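User: Modeling request: complex.
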Amino acid sequence: MPARTGAQYIAGLKEQATKVFIHGEQVEDVTSHPALRNGVNTLAGLYDMQHDPKLKDQMTYVSPDTGQRVGLSFITPKTKEDLEQRHTMMANWAKVTCGMMGRTPDFMNVTMMAMASAGDYFAQNRPEFKKNIQDYFTYIRENDLVLTHTLVNLQRSRAPLATLLEDQTDVALSVVKETDAGVVVRGPRLLATLGPLADEIAVYPARNHRLPADAQEKYSFAFAIPCNTPGLKFLCRESFDLGRSHFDHPLASRFEEMDAIVFFDDVLVPWERVFLLGDVELCNGVSEKTNRNIHSGHQVVTKQVVKCEFVLGLANMMVETLGSGQIPQVQQMIAEVIENLEVMKACLRASEADAALDQWGVMCPSQMPLRVARNMFIRMYPRMAEILHLLGSSSLMALPTEADLSGPLAKDIEQYLDTDTASAEERIRLFRLAWDTCCSAFASRQVLYERYFGGDSLRNAIILYGLYDKQPMTQWVREFVDQE
Ligand SMILES: Cc1cc2nc3c(=O)[nH]c(=O)nc-3n(C[C@H](O)[C@H](O)[C@H](O)COP(=O)(O)OP(=O)(O)OC[C@H]3O[C@@H](n4cnc5c(N)ncnc54)[C@H](O)[C@@H]3O)c2cc1C
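Assistant: Request completed. Predicted assembly structure:
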């Protein structure tokens, strides 16, 4: 099947009928449930872009297997131009969501591409696992499926560990049985962003939550299965899409990507969907050795650039509307957003300029600029939300709703809430967007997401510290110190 349309994506979700629970009840149909349907529709719109005659060439490429056009985020990059094309495609999707849906399907498409390309890594575990991961990647590319993923085990205690990067396994997802048909897994995982909106779920090891070296083999695996596999249950958090208009909740009414805890209740994973099993060391090495984290970093930083651009445009409109552009500290705060944007752009460009073919024959972006960009964004994004607070101040609360514009106080609103540059309605429309970016429940989740979705800042700093080759600089300084 070539790249899907939005209608095909929605039809697939309807048919699949995954077990999704929210607000104390089971969802009958995620495509029509008020808490989820708008997020589904936004994703459907992204799929439709693949068929827009003006965008088709940017959004799709010719499948190496079928000759049909498939989503470009599935491309196995062989050249730097391939990476740039992939970046353009991913930026097109990110722009639609103002960078507010971190887990558009390109995130997992590039991840699975990296793991499939490194098939020989999985073959070290069992030869057939190479075929499994490669067949699976071909399957999702040719069927244009949406994947969610869940990497982290629940932690019962956060008592200091020998190494923060290792998780205890007392409430971990584990293999409880092997049968002729496959492996049976039991336990919880968190989180699965996009889980209720996805066709398939992938489970594989995280780099920053490793298994202890002496962990039992039953905790080490990688696999992917349909979200409607028997025994699989998704428990959603409260929805931030409250059914309000685009005017009132401009972001939450469009971009609810939902986060869910996943319960695996004796779920059978067929052998052909198992990519790794029972080898703690190989499990812990997946991220580093397959470069999956670098390719997902390429998607993430592409999205961060778009998100910074969005915040800059929004901040500047707020300043223009409030007439505060001459105030030095306002200029300083806008300058800070510009710095963030330019640093993200520079890291993205550096990662592409210094890309090189890896041992799997894939053109791999340079790791360090992406890693640094991701670590820095954990601090940048909460600060940018704070800057929006400081720029908006009471305008983020003196904020009537759409209904108020035609309510009993409509005249007062029109008379008093305009500014030198904006009518009352223009001001309210803009500041409702600012509110949904930095104040609402949706906004608060964005800050939490950026802080944690790729692992917390401390674990990521420890990884960067360990990876970075500090010796050349250290040696240089040593020589300088030793000079007579
Ligand atoms: C909105 C959102 C979406 C997410 N989506 C996904 C997803 O789609 N897929 C997925 O797999 N995961 C997802 N996650 C989970 C994410 O991977 C984790 O949040 C992240 O790895 C951090 O783990 P944690 O939340 O358990 O934090 P914690 O481990 O509790 O860390 C919190 C803080 O405590 C510190 N800390 C913890 N333990 C110790 C200790 N023993 N000693 C010293 N300091 C300690 C940490 O350094 C950190 O600063 C998501 C998270 C969020 C918030």
